């Protein structure tokens, strides 16, 4: 099975535990407080990998797709309490995790053979991002600030790409 060639059962379990079960646990912890106040904002971090599967990272892509679906479910359940739930789907941010991803891509994808992780990252930006720039933590933080503001009081169940145009659909 191709999806198992790059990830173990433990990879799947650990990734789902952090990315999906973690969100569920945090939401459950604040559920009563938000519903009794009849107000709240939930912003979850998904990924463009949850919008479209990525090679060599099936467990990560699947978990981020689950984050989007879970966010929409939370939004439907809590909307009547004036609680919004949205997800942010960042594009390419240079992080320690990306060093590992770049290594995997350089080993597994012929177009990236022999490249360093940063070269893989920069090549993907040049080839896939129309705006030709990587995303930053500040880009994500500004989107979080928007979603928790009154300007977003009527936005719920959405997954917003912050990706320079990487994923357009």
What does this structure look like?
By secondary structure, this protein is mainly alpha-helical. Helix content is 51%, strand content 11%. The protein has five helices and three strands. The chain has helices at residues 9-37, 58-78, 96-108, 117-128, 137-148; strands spanning 40-45, 83-90, 159-162. It has a three-stranded parallel beta sheet with strand order 1-2-3, with helices on both faces. Strand 1, helix 2 (58-78) and strand 2 form a beta-alpha-beta unit. It is globular and about 55 Å long. The model has no long low-confidence stretch (mean pLDDT 94).
Descriptors:
169 residues, mainly alpha, Rossmann fold, three-stranded parallel β-sheet, 5 helices
């Amino acid at each position: 099975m191709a999806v198992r060639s790059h990830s173990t059962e433990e990879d799947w379990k650990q990734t789902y535990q952090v990315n999906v079960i973690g969100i569920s646990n945090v939401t459950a912890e604040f559920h009563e407080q938000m519903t009794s106040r009849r107000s709240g904002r939930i912003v979850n971090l998904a990924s463009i990998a949850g919008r479209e599967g990525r090679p060599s990272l099936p467990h990560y892509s699947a978990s981020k797709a689950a984050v989007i679906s879970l966010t929409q479910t939370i939004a439907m359940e809590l909307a009547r309490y004036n609680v919004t739930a949205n997800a942010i789907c960042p594009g390419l941010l240079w992080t320690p995790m990306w060093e590992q991803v770049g290594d995997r891509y350089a080993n597994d994808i012929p177009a990236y053979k022999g490249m360093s992780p940063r070269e893989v990252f920069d090549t993907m930006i040049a080839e896939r991002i129309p705006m030709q720039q990587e995303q930053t933590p500040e880009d994500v933080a500004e989107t979080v600030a928007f979603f928790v503001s009154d300007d977003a009081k009527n936005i719920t169940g959405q997954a917003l790409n912050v990706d320079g145009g990487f994923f357009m659909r």
